[in-house]
Amino acid sequence: MPLPSPWRADFPAIAALQRQGQTYLDNAATTQKPQALLDALNHYYVNGAANVHRAQHLPGANATQAFENSRSKIAHWLNAGESAQIVFTHGATSALNLLAYGLEHECVAGDEIVISALEHHANLLPWQQLAHRRDLKLIILPLDANGLIDLEAAASLIGPRTRLLAVSQLSNVLGAWQPLPALLSMAKSHGALTVVDGAQGVVHGRHDVQALGCDFYVFSSHKLYGPEGLGVLYGRNEALARLHHWQFGGEMVLTTDYHTAKFRPAPLGFEAGTPPIASVIGLGATLDYLASLDHAAVVAHEAALHRLLLDGLNRREGIRVLGAPQLALVSFVVEGVHNADLAHLLTEQGIAVRAGHHCAMPLLKSLGLPGAIRVSLALYNDSDDLERFFSALDQALELLR
Ligand code: PMP
Q1: What tens digit of pLDDT does each residue of 41-64 get?
Q2: For ligand 1, what atom is nearest to the CA of residue 170?
Q3: CB atoms near residue 360 (< 10 Å)
Q4: CATH superfamily placement of domain 8-25+294-400
Q5: For the structural domain made of 38-291, what CATH number should be given?
Q6: CA 330–ligand 1 middle distance (angstroms)
Q7: How far apart are CA 229 and CA 109, in angstroms?
Q8: Is the fold of 8-25+294-400 the same as that of 38-291?
Q9: What residue's CA is closest to ligand 1, atom 4?
Q10: 398 CA distance to ligand 1 centroid (A)?
Q11: Helix ranges restricted to H, 190-318
Q12: Is the pLDDT of residue 401 over 90?
């Protein structure tokens, strides 16, 4: 049964890509943008750019108001208690680095930081390097056969020395929701801080950070159909108050002389320098657009596409799906075929998927694989996209086998 996407026409790049002979199925890397976002960017630049929080003039006041409106919209999207809990960064990666530097003073030699075996490099390397700087132990939670963080193992590895737990909500390789409530409650029972990497999770469904109960939640705008160069860090008030300032410069300071300074609290105290103003305004417009969609219909469409993708792969011989993907994406390898060769033949046929280690080298290594192919879906994909993918896959495999 065909599965058309009612929202496809809202994303002009999809038609443009199709004219270029491209089928875009690399949405976990980044997404195409809705017209509503392009209109907002155009409106901002055409009507007059200005810096925020500095100028008393009208363009500055307009930009600041639009910028702060976006902060409120993002707070609302995540159900944060107040917009001051939303800090703008340059991406999920820079939000996680902010945390790894801003919380460094909380750790003393021998303390433990706990992450999982499936983390993206962005949620591994900042903690690994913090562990090196402070002589901490980095504990890696293992996965079960379905690619979920093993809760039994976690119960024995999270303990009184755990200072911080940082885990992904939805794996960018295995496509499975991680058991966050159980993990967060284990960490909290030992007084540890909790960080959720929502880079993939935020794109699928709506999440309530207060109900989730984490101290920090991070994501990147560009994966949520928004503009690039913008990340979001949500923090509970008590957790934000524990952060030390990390980057220093304009607007984050209250008063300074040549030798000393007093800094602002969150959010502005963690937004040194000119922020990505147009991107912040653009993300607000993107969220307005997303909020206008029939949420249940989006979830149902994505689920139906995912079933089609998974069934199609499972029906083909010699294909090994990684983990037990529940939504959004499927990573796979083909027996006797190198993922780079397959990726090359798919690329030649205009299929844009991702091949390689997906910025999760240790995970791929633990699965005994040099890399894998990942097909990842967005709300604008349809069954024709998948048909083109499967037909290209069959042709490629015929050639390679
Ligand atoms: N975490 C996860 C799970 C991701 O998939 C990504 C992006 N691939 C990131 C973090 C980092 O996001 P960014 O590159 O936008 O900073």
Answers
A1: 999 999 999 999 988 899 999 999
A2: 3
A3: 26
A4: Aspartate Aminotransferase, domain 1 (3.90.1150.10)
A5: 3.40.640.10
A6: 17
A7: 34
A8: no
A9: 199
A10: 34
A11: 209-212, 237-240, 277-291, 295-315
A12: no
